[in-house]
Amino acid sequence: MTARRRLRVLVVAPERHALRQPHAGGLEAVVWNRVRWLRGRGHDVQLCAADGSDFLGADTGLHLPRPRWHRSLDASDTEFPEGHRRLMTDAFDRIRDRLIHPATGVDVVDNHSLHGAPILWSRETGIPVVTTLHTPPLPAMVVAAHAAGPDAPHRFLAVSRFTAGAWAAEGVDAFVFPNGVDGAQWQLGPGPRRGEESWVWFGRIVPEKAPHLAIRAARLARARLRLAGRIGDLTYFTEEVEPLLGDGIEYVGALRQPALSALVGSSSVALVTPVWSEPFGLVVAEALMTGTPVAAFDSGGISEVLRGMPGTAIVRAPEVETLARAAVALARRVRSGSARRGLRAAAVRRYSIEQRQREVERVLMMCADSAPVSPALRAAGAVALAERDAVTEAIGA
Question: For the whole prediction, is pTM greater than 0.85?
Answer without folding.
Answer: yes
